[in-house]
Amino acid sequence: MRLSRCRASRAGLIVAALAVSLLTTAPVGSASASPSASSPPPASSPPAVSAATADGFASVDALGQNGTTGGAGGAVVTAATTAQLLDHISRPEPLVVQVSGTITLPAGSRDGMHPVASDKTIVGLGSTARLTGGGLHIGLPVSDGVTSPPPDAVHNVIIRNLSFDGATDDLINIQMFSHHIWIDHNDFSDGDDGAVDIKRGSDFVTVSWNRFHDHDKTLLLGHDDDNAAQDRGRLRVTYHHNHFDASDQRNPRVRFAEPVHVYNNYYRDNSYGVASAMDAGVVLEGNYFHSVNNPARVDFSGDLGRLVARDNILVECNHPIETRGSVVEPRTYYAYTPHRAAEVPAVVPAGAGVGKI
Predict the structure, then answer these.
(1) Which of 84, 186, 312, 348 is paired with 336 by a 20 to 30 Å CA distance?
(2) What is the distance between the alpha carbons of residues 48 and 97, in angstroms, rounded to a whole number?
């Protein structure tokens, strides 16, 4: 590929290697006893995973929810079978659901998509927890006539430390005004459609420290050019410290949303990184693009989007970053401290994915 712009240096990469030592992790604790799928979870159980706090848009107090806490305060249960997992994630009460080993999600009548109720933390134990064959669905059934957040919108869900693959539809789908969702330290590959799709008025979401690989249509944010009634003024999402490891496209592909904060992600060997369309507003900051045909575009399909870019590094890319207009600053909503772009190639692969929380 033709070199578009290169600001990387040997000194910068040395600094990046040193930055890995600044990452902090917390071990996963021991599993609690696993109840049967038909019995209720225990009234209480000692926490088996370390406390963690959502950042980015998932940390914002809004819509009656103070940040994203998942199943905090609820029982801790362990799912080692399909029946146990599907029972636990559908319960109405707060739960921390620990996933042990590989669980196959059946296609069934939902095309392999299985609903998650509000106030849930779903977290893998160790580095081998895996959901295969299907995906997780966060949100009410689709209704075009609903144009503002309903009181029963699914909210306050955390998904961490899980490998997802082989879904017959999306690996994770978030829709219908779901809010306060944190997708963190997972591995996504080989889904039939999206890896993490966010649409239909969903809001206050953070997608962080994940690895996406061997996948085509990765991250859809806003599903249709004609859906402004549900999406405009919503779809506020933070994507940070993700490893887009040869995930082909939609990293993410954005409509209507503002602001979308895409920072400190490592892109390697992608057809395109970010596409901003339908007047969406994206802040692209501190990312590292290596061998990416189109790092970021505002002239894509549909109406033009808007994009502000700063401190991004491009190496062996065929096209420059396209910028246009102004965008609401993420700091309007939350504080953050980004890494320098030169640190990203060392920091992100070392910290993204499973087994690293």
Answers:
(1) 186
(2) 10
CB-side neighbour CA atoms (13 Å) of 240: 23
Per the CB < 8 A criterion, the answer to whether 12 and 317 are in contact is no
Burial string for 197-232 (b: 16+ CB within 10 Å, else e) reads bbbbbbbbbbbbbbbbbebebbbbbbbeeebeebbb
pLDDT digits (tens, 9 = 90+) for 96-108: 999 999 999 998 7
Rg (CA), the chain: 19
Query: What is the rounded distance in angstroms from the CA atom of residue 213 to the CA atom of residue 269?
Result: 10
What the block records as the tokens of 130 is 């895996």
Judge whether residue 145 has pLDDT over 50. yes
The structure's pTM equals 0.86
Q: Phi first, then psi: what are they for 345, rounded to 5°?
A: -60, -20
Phi-psi region of 294 (alpha: psi -120 to 50; beta: other; left: phi over 0): beta
Could you tell me if 271 and 246 are in contact, meaning their C-beta atoms sit under 8 angstroms apart?
Answer: no
Percent over 70 (pLDDT), the chain: 85
Work out the angle between the directed axes of helices 344-351 and 10-19 (0-180°, nearest 10): 30
Task: Supply the pLDDT for residue 305.
Answer: 98
Catalytic member of 250, 253, 268, 297 = 250
Distances (CA, A) of 171 to 4, 98, 133, 151: 33, 18, 9, 26
Cα dihedral across residues 245, 321, 233, 238: positive or negative: positive
Q: 301-323 burial string, b = 16+ CB within 10 Å, else e?
A: eeebbbbbbebbbbbebebebbb
3-state secondary structure of 342: helix
Q: How far is CA 86 from CA 176, 186, 194, 317, in A?
A: 21, 19, 21, 43
**pLDDT band at residue 52 using 50, 70 and 90 as cut-offs:** confident
Determine the Cα–Cα distance for residues 139 and 150; give it in Å rounded to an integer: 11
> Is position 250 annotated as part of the catalytic site?
yes
> CA 345 to CA 350: how far, in whole Å?
9
